[in-house]
Amino acid sequence: MKVKEGFIIRKVAGKYVVVATGEASKSFHGMVKLNETAKTIWEGLADGKTPEEITEVLMKENNAETEEDRKKIYDDVQSMIGEMREAGFLVD
């Protein structure tokens, strides 16, 4: 799974947003605000990383070490992926 072509992240007024470009802008109007965690997930998917690889990145970024931390972060990654899929931002 990967982020659909035509969606890019930009930093606007200190906040991260996703905007549509090119063909994608014909069907998606507006922007999506991302927090730091969502930005990391989005960029990981854009780079072709698996949910497990993204979880590892977030574990390091948050100095998380326990299996409980890993499960919580992985669940958050999966939740974000579900939201992105529902919104039409992902391709398999």
Descriptive terms for the model:
92 residues, alpha+beta, three-stranded antiparallel β-sheet, 22% strand
How would you portray this structure in words?
By secondary structure, the chain is of the alpha+beta class. 51% of the residues lie in helices and 22% in strands. The protein is built from four helices and five strands, in the order E-E-E-H-E-H-H-H-E. The protein has a three-stranded antiparallel sheet. It has a two-stranded antiparallel sheet with strand order 1-5. The longest helix is centred in the last third of the chain and has 21 residues, at 67-87. The mean pLDDT is 93.
- Rg for CA atoms: 14 Å
Shape verdict: globular
> In which range does the helix fraction lie?
40-55%
Number of strands: 5
Mean pLDDT across every amino acid position: 93
Protein structure class: alpha+beta
Give the DSSP E fraction (strand runs of 2 or more residues). 15-25%
User: Oligomer, anyone?
Assistant: single chain
Number of helices: 4
* First-last Cα distance: 4 Å
Order of helices and strands: EEEHEHHHE
Largest sheet: 3 strands, antiparallel
Uncertain stretches: none
Lateral strand order in the biggest sheet:
2-3-4
Q: Topology, please?
A:
Blueprint: E1 2-3, E2 7-12, E3 15-20, H1 24-27, E4 31-34, H2 36-46, H3 51-61, H4 67-87, E5 90-91
Antiparallel strand pairs: 1-5, 2-3, 3-4
What's a concise summary of this model?
This protein is 51% helix and 22% strand.
